Amino acid sequence: MSTLDTATDDIGHDHHGPASGIGRWLFTTNHKDIGSLYLWFSLLMFLTGGVMALMIRAELFQPGLQLVEPGFFNQMTTMHGLIMVFGAVMPAFVGLANWMIPMMIGAPDMALPRMNNWSFWILPFAFAILISTLLMEGGAPNFGWTFYAPLSTTYAPPSVTYFIFAIHIMGMSSIMGAINIIATILNMRAPGMTMMKLPMFVWSWLITAFLLIAVMPVLAGVVTMMLMDIHFGTSFFNAAGGGDPVLFQHVFWFFGHPEVYIMILPAFGIISHIIPTFSRKRLFGYASMVYAMASIAILSFLVWAHHMFTVGLPLVGELFFMFATMLIAVPTGVKVFNWVTTMFRGSLTFETPMLFAIAFVVLFTIGGFSGLMLAIAPVDFQYHDTYFVVAHFHYVLVPGAIFAIMAGVYYWLPKWTGHQLNERMGRLHFWLSFIGVNITFFPMHFIGLAGMPRRIPDYALQFADFNMVASIGAFIFGFSQLLFVWNVIQTVRHGEKAQARAWEGAEGLEWEVASPAPYHTFATPPRVD
Amino acid sequence: MGMIRIIPLSCALILLSASAQAEWTLNLTPGVTEVSRSVYDLHMTIFWICVAIGCVVFGVMFWSIFHHRKSRGAKAHHFHEHTAVEVMWTLIPLGILVAMAVPATATLVDMYDPRDAKLDVQVTGYQWKWRYQYLDQELDFFSNLTTPREQISNTENKGEHYLLEVDRHLVLPTDTKIRFLLTANDVIHSWWVPALAVKKDAIPGFINEAWTQIDEPGLYRGQCAELCGKDHGFMPIVVEAVPPDQFEQWVAGMKAEKQAQQQASERTWTLDELMAQGEQVYLSSCAACHQANGAGLPPAFPALKGSAIAVGDVQAHIDIVLHGKPGTAMQAFAEQLSPAELAAVITYERNAWGNSTGEAVSPAQVSRVLAGEGAAEEGM
Amino acid sequence: MSSPTILRRWWNTLLGVLAGFLGVQSEARRERDFKEGRALHFVVVGVLMAAVFVIFVILLVRWALQLAGA
Question: Residues of A with catalytic annotation?
């Protein structure tokens, strides 16, 4: 899509190498270092949240209480959700943005490097606070990642205050990251890199960043209202004081629904790079993709109450959110057709990133289908808060967002490390993950339809078989991620030397610089035609 | 219907799970009401729409994967937009969904119309039990899980209706339009019986409406669907649908039972009788939080063993059991238990696990406290 | 710049926004949008059309309820 006029060189800046020792990482303002920090942090959180998921699945392996108490089980479901959403998926996307956006638009670094450092380094503190609640008297937050009041206010364990503080810090980090990304994309593009030529990943992040700035303050607002209710005698969510518990859900989902897109738009961006590369063909309908994503940003604010069909909305409200959801879902959903058409009559090869990308398209679509089913309000009464919903959002988040992140990591790893990854190990990781993910989450559709509610530590006997299958799948999926960790570490340390253009069909400015990418790229801006 | 109820994609998974412990299902229940059947039909319609779209999309995709691979010498054809095709594949699914919205709206409108109900039942969610009040029949009782703790902790074999069995069923007449008024006492719960296709949140301080009309007599089991704290998984619902004449008999029987309870409160109980009865009540109503051994789960659920209340002033002990402690999980039991049961459980708490106060609290003592309030509330 | 061109430009912006709502746009029109359009115009028209969308769905709901006789 773009070619370079000038050679990209980074030599001749003697004072610009990385600092040595721990100081390099603590004080770094380099987008590549900060990108790496985000990605390693996200991996750590992914494994932490994964261990919690395995504890949940281990308890649910058989009916009866075997391993954990119901109270602790609730802490696990809550912490698993919070850590995966705010600690694994979101920081991973920010990490990829840090690494790739400056290279993709021909910028020397992010626009606000010091803020970049800060927005990363407050994250470990936020999660240290959140995870430390597990050791507190009364235990960690146990009210689910959606923390509905009054379970999370009047009836919450004392650690809820730490949880609120941690959420505030995470929100600040996200907002700063988003501001930085917008400032970079709007101001730091190389000459000739017009908005029209922006790579899809950059477009997807530009839109995501606006969504983040719009909704993270809403999340901060709702946890602050909780804080006021708990400690300062207000009654936002307490009916006895004139408040309304349903208000909490409206405010939460006003944040929560755009948050869903925050976790999937950058994935769309990544997939829109990988599929064309390995199909040796340009993305089909680039223009449509950009327009659809832009309109999602606005329309995602109009459907939040489809998460609340059973709270007793008036009929008018129920119909409004059902119609709006159905109308909006389709134009977004059919973007899948663009990827399929990109593959159609291409020249396909199936390296690890492509395998993950194809699995993304297939399994995300399955998650989209169950999403369509959930949009039908009268039927949602049967699906709501069952394992059908659990199956739905895990299909869009695990083989959706997380497979896209892994596809992106495998795709750009040669650029980051200068080494080709171990392809055989990558494929093994893919197949184990693909099989594991489906064994885990597909049966959840059945147990949900059969009537098993979410967030229960023990269940009736008719759900036993599929729960056992799901638990086995979870362990296959969980342990196969160790292959990913091992493969990444091996690729960082050694491996076949990678070309500047590591993949045959890859296009874009990031492939014009050497592999590994020098510490400073595009110190002199390239010219893009 | 047999073919339709089996989701084709499940075949591989059925093979994986050969050992069936209890009968399991793959699909939504069609249920036993007109509404539940139309919900089931909507579910199957949207399901098959998804299957059809999926076949087309994945079909094209796998065609490309097999035929357009580089290893087979495929050369990339460079086309990257076709607005007409894109518009078409957006509008067709949109049209299908709009068509889907028509029956969905009709069903939803029907579900939101509780007019002309013949029976009103107020359903109140408590941590972690349900309370049912038949407003015209003046019946009022709680429904607790009866699955023994031994089955949950795996020291006994699990029964057929493990975790889906309660001490008092919600008995409802068939062929009668019944209106539910749902609310909660503490946190948000959600009352769900799949066979009736009724799921509605029970929200503290607010009242939600739902209705049903059951066609077939039978037992229909459900569960709380909204996370409501520690024992969210242990507050099932059992609806017993009986023909209208049997329902009348049941109402009469319940009224007689209520009278018998009143008489029990008036006679004198020995300490042993109170202790025996108290242990039963304790295990069904108190042990979930304060634990069978009285050690509790501090700090949310304090220990009773050696606690200042359980070995201290009797009046304070009666007061907290009857009225609960606002802002904590400790509920008011005055309405949940009869005076005899209250007296028994308080006596038990004051004498079990080494709390040897030797004091017996008589039902009459409890009744006096209740009567004191009753007089004050009479005017309401 | 004469007034017809301004009108024309807003009209094109509106078409661009509607294309976004449908999620389909052609390459040629996109190029025109990015060459001639102003970002602020797109945001303003976008928010306006979102409001129109809300009103449209509300009317749709009313009409559906009237048909259903509820």
Answer: 80, 109, 145, 173-174, 257, 259, 261, 272, 306-307, 332, 335, 454
B68:A469 CB<8 A: no
Neighbouring chains of C at 3+ CB pairs under 8 Å are A, B
- State the DSSP H helix or E strand holding residue A302, giving kind and residue range, or none if neither: none
Q: Inform me whether the C-beta atom of residue A509 falls under 8 Å from chain B C-beta atoms.
A: no
- Give the range of the structural domain holding residue C53, as residue numbers without chain letter: 3-68
Structure tokens at A337: 């057709």
Of residues B89, B197, B221, nearest to A382 (C-beta): B197
B119-258: which CATH topology?
A: Immunoglobulin-like (2.60.40)
Q: Rounded CA gap, A332 and A171, in Å?
A: 26
* Contact assignment for B105 to C23 by CB distance below 8 Å: no
Report the C-alpha gap between B332 and B131 in whole angstroms: 13
Residue A496's CB is within 10 A of a number of other CB atoms, namely: 13
> What does the alpha-carbon distance between residue A42 and residue A484 come to, in Å, rounded to a whole number?
13
Name the one residue in this structure whose structure tokens are 């949900």: A448
Backbone angles phi, psi at C60, to 5 degrees: -60, -45
| Contact: C24, B90; criterion CB under 8 Å | yes
Contacts of B81 in chain C (CB under 8 A): 26-27
Determine which helix (DSSP H) or strand (DSSP E) holds B319, and give its type and residue range: helix B314-323
Cross-chain Cβ contact A385/B199 below 8 Å? yes
A-B contacts (CB, under 8 Å): 330
Any CB–CB contact under 8 A between B17 and chain C?
A: no
Q: How many distinct structural domains can be found in chain C?
A: 1
B64/A442 CB distance under 8 A? no
- Strands B119-126 and B129-134 come out as antiparallel
B113 vs C26, C64, C70: nearest CB: C70
Query: Does 1.10.287 match the CATH number of domain B2-8+27-72+80-111?
Result: yes
Mutate to test the interface with B, among A252, A348, A349, A438 (most CBs of B within 10 A): A348
Q: Where in chain B is the domain with CATH 1.10.287?
A: 2-8+27-72+80-111
Pairing of strands B198-202, B189-193: antiparallel
Q: Provide, as residue numbers in chain A, all residues whose Cβ is less than 8 Å from the Cβ of B153.
A: 64-65
Is A480 strand, coil or helix? Answer: helix
Beta carbons of B369 and B317 less than 8 angstroms apart: no
Q: For domain B267-377, which CATH number applies: 3.40.50.720, 1.10.287.770, 2.40.10.10, 1.10.760.10? A: 1.10.760.10
DSSP-derived 3-state class of residue A401: helix
Per-residue confidence of chain A (529 residues) as pLDDT tens digits?
444 444 444 444 445 678 888 889 999 999 999 999 999 999 999 999 999 999 999 999 999 999 999 999 999 999 999 999 999 999 999 999 999 999 999 999 999 999 999 999 999 999 999 999 999 998 999 999 999 999 999 999 999 999 999 999 999 999 999 999 999 999 999 999 988 889 999 999 999 999 999 999 999 999 999 999 999 999 999 998 999 999 999 999 999 999 999 999 999 999 999 999 999 999 998 988 998 888 888 889 999 999 999 999 999 999 999 999 998 888 777 789 999 999 999 999 999 999 999 999 999 999 999 999 999 999 999 999 999 999 999 999 999 999 999 999 999 999 999 999 999 999 999 999 999 999 999 999 999 999 999 999 999 999 999 999 999 999 999 999 999 999 999 999 988 899 899 998 899 999 999 989 999 999 899 988 7
Query: Rounded distance, CA B71 to CA B68, Å?
Result: 9
